[in-house]
Amino acid sequence: MKIKSGFMLRDIAGSWIVVPLGQRVVEFNGLMTLNESGALIWRKLEGGAEIDDLVQVICSEYDIDEATARIDVEEIVESIRSKNLLE
After folding, report:
1. How far apart are the C-alpha atoms of 43 and 65, rounded to whole Å?
2. Predicted pLDDT of residue 2
3. Which of 19, 31, 38, 77 has its CA 20 to 30 A from that of 13?
4. pTM across the whole model
């Protein structure tokens, strides 16, 4: 999975915001706000990553068990997918 081109993750006043650029502004009406773990997942997805890779990243970054990490990762990825931001 990979984030579509034309979107940028920005730290604005302490909040992680997904901002559409160029033509994507027309396609994506609105903004998406992410928490720290969501921003980490987004950054990994910019380069391309699969669910299992993301789960391992979250496990090591936040020292949580795999089952909990998988639930969180799947929820965040589904939120990103539902907004049609993945290739």
Report:
1. 21
2. 98
3. 77
4. 0.92
